[in-house]
Please model this.
Amino acid sequence: MSGGWLRVVVMAVFLTLCINTDASAQALRRGRAQQVTGGILIERLDSLEQARADSIANVPDELKRLSEKRAKQIADSLARVARRKARAKELGRLDDDGNIIPREKWFGDSLSLSRMTIVSAVLPGYGQIYNKQYWKLPILYGTLGTSIGLAAHFGSRHKPLKQELEAMFENGMSRTEEMNALQRQKIRENTKKQVFMFTAAASYLYFLGDAAMNYATNDVSDVKKATTLSLIFPGAGQAYNKSYWKVPIVLGGMASMIYVIDWNNRGFKRFKTAYSLRADFDQHPENYPDGVSKDEFRGRYSATFLKNLRDSYRRNRDLSILLTAGVYIFQAIDAHVDAHLKDFDISDNLTVDIDPMFDYQYTQIGGADPVFGFNLNLTF
Model:
């Protein structure tokens, strides 16, 4: 009996040693780092286990943050509905069940922002009528009508002066003080016409943007409003997004490109006329008894030279138009993307940290070994 019990005890001890050895080997294969702190052996989690632990620890905060964001969205939506119902109640458009009674097709609550803006572009003042801001209509039509009327008035005074001056050039008159005075008067009348044309255009665009800004019958995101405003007037979308430092860049870029277009267009017209007169002189010299071309350069430049200048100005004008369209599209895309990024989560919960690492790894076999590397921490 004693021999049998002895064999049983020996077998039990052997199995225990095998189990402990296998567990130690598994720990060694896992490469779990161990650190001696204050005379105590402490096991450190590997990078995968540490990342898993960090993710689990951040779950409650993440759920809380998402819950707060969703609660804010629901509260904003309920607030917009409450505002619509309050406005409908003031206008007497609530039924007995508290539902909004739709208006007519062109003034219905279902009219989208883009459709309302398009109709306002065709019929100035429609947006103010749709938004029930009738007091703005006299200002709109007064400013717009006065500016258009004055532009037409000064345009009618500028046209005969222009025709008279062109006739003097075509007749080959040499420059006199009378011609200079006529040209100065023509420039003054043209400047006044352009100022009032600009005032009319600015009034039109302002009230079009005002209609879009005060649109509140449907739930409209800031992204759509910013994009719509940037399409109406360059820079308005950036101002709506409160990116005020971008506004002078956009306006400066657009103004510069428009000036370049106008400069090249005037040069194109100038040398087009000069080339036509010079080419006619070369083809029909018998029509010029004095033997001098009637172009503004009095025959100093050949037709080929004037033609090259004409084509150069036209090419630069066309290129400037393409670049202006590119600037316009780019600023609209910028306003759209910037409005999206206003709600983009860039809190500390979205981080990527890479730090150098130097440590000692303690194992049951081999003792302490130095470890070099990097720690990569992803928080999301």
